[in-house]
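step 3/5: co-fold with fe (ii) ion
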Amino acid sequence: MPDGALTAVVDDTIWTLDRPVWFSGVRMRARTTVVRLEDGSLLLHTPAPPTDALAEQLRALGPVRWLLVPNCWHHLGTPAAAARFPEARVVGPASALDRNKALRIDVDIHDARFGELVPELEALPLRGVPFWDETVLYHRPTQTLLGADIVLCACAKDHWTLRYAARLTGFYERVRVPPDARKKIPDRTAAARSIRAMLERPAQRLIVGHAEVIEEGWRDGLARAWRLEGVEV
Ligand SMILES: [Fe+2]
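step 4/5: write tokens
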């Protein structure tokens, strides 16, 4: 697979693109997920900085109408993407604005208006973890959950720095809550309610920012990861 190529996850509807990102001394894979909506337009979940090659690939799939910032961390490529796709609306949490002065948000992800504007997506906020302020999306047509940081999992494909950190902190070939958030779950009851809502969706797969696409056993993996942090789901 050439660098920067989109990988199809669901034919004609969902693609992913992974790019390397250095974070806290390790090289992670950061994912952008592209969803083709029923009107033919595209939603970019965690937009990558748009290279010419990516913009060309996207143009062949449809017009980019939505740029989605899923939590207050996954905003880095969005200002550049918003400049590249000026007709796209940015949806995300207001908390991300504090972290990125170049970011603009047109629709707050916690506003019910988003569900009215894009009815095929259901917003499932993760309450009780303000450190992330994450909202997972359930894409009804493909029965896909789209998250960012709610869990992660490293594997042999990852850079050695991440494999090393993952072995030390328990997420090598194992779905876990990211180590930097484990001590930042002030309301476990609220988090449990939110994770349960995700588990109840009839999803066939879970796509997150830093793991392979999780299909078989996604429900067990997600539930086990949060139970390890004292969240009773
Ligand atoms: Fe992340």
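step 5/5: annotate
The first strand starts at residue 7 and ends at 10.
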